[in-house]
Amino acid sequence: MTQQSETDSQLMARLCQGDDSALDLLIHRHPAAAEQYARVLLQDAGAAEEAVMDAFARVYLLRERYQPAFAFQTWLRVLVRSRCLDQLRRRARQPIPVDDPVPQGLAASPEALALQKEERLRLWEMLEELSEVDQRLLLGYAMEGRSYRELADALHLSLPQVRVRLHRIRKRLRRKEDAAE
Known about the structure:
By secondary structure, the protein is an all-alpha fold. The chain has helices at 8-16, 21-29, 31-42, 45-61, 72-93, 110-128, 132-143, 148-155, 159-180.
């Protein structure tokens, strides 16, 4: 049976048996509908993409709970909806940003430079709290522009592991940043 003719349930069965390439096939098969659904809920393309990737990370984490009696697309839609609702709840808790009335020329002031330096130090401190592998993943992806595949090969991880780990790293850093504010 070719990979194209496999059903979603068969791919989920392979994923449960440890074949991480099955997740890649599911991700390539279902991104458009999932992102369209998330965009409708969130009204933000970037947030929708993040919600969908988070949902696929949940597919990987909850793979043992999948029930083949139900359509994979329905299960994925439930996971995407859950991730979108989480984002909407976070948005509702955040204060609405007010336009800064400070003139642009003040951006190079000593106070602004001190704040920038403090922000950079806080980011480095958060990076130091990550494991060595997570540091290499984040720096390779964000600073060096390496692809998920390049990172997977360099760090001897599967592609789904890279996706899930990077997602968790970003989520952890975002939580720490929110807590610092």
